[in-house]
Specification:
single chain; mainly beta; five-stranded antiparallel β-sheet; two-stranded antiparallel ribbon; 7 strands; extended
């Protein structure tokens, strides 16, 4: 558990040297009387990367740091992205650290290019596994 009714900060970082990414967000919250918080229920405090309550706020509020590409646009789509989440107390001392890996392409995902006029994009869809029928001899 975290300190009860105290200010904490969640720093979210994405660094990938291959794609020249360095994105970061810092969001502040107040823990409840039980020593917990959730970005889905706890409003941010002043000085945060976003205002209000949002489950994915720590991710979509990340901003490019100096030397980073401005957009999260990948050169190689099969590259894994490692996100780091640091929970800090009001003195910026580390309370907890967690990492999460995001992958777009795996052997069971099919990438399909789409375009409409000048707009281009891609869909990443799970490959359909076809049932094989057993034939009687």
């Amino acid at each position: 558990n975290l300190p009860k009714s105290s200010e904490i900060a969640l720093r979210t970082t994405l660094v990938n040297t291959e794609n020249k990414f360095h994105f970061e967000s810092l969001n502040r919250y107040r823990t409840n009387v039980f020593g917990s918080f959730s970005s889905a229920f706890s409003p941010t405090l002043p000085g945060s990367g976003y205002t209000g309550v949002h489950t994915s706020g720590p991710l979509w509020s990340m901003r490019p740091m100096e030397g980073s590409r401005a957009r999260l646009q990948m050169e190689k789509i099969d590259t894994e992205l490692e996100y780091q989440f640091e929970l800090l107390d009001s003195n910026n001392d580390l309370l907890a650290l967690e990492k999460m890996t995001k992958v777009f392409m795996t052997p069971d995902i099919q990438r399909t290019g789409i375009s409409s006029g000048n707009i281009q994009g891609a869909l990443f869809v799970p490959k359909v596994k076809r049932k094989t029928e057993k034939r009687k001899a």
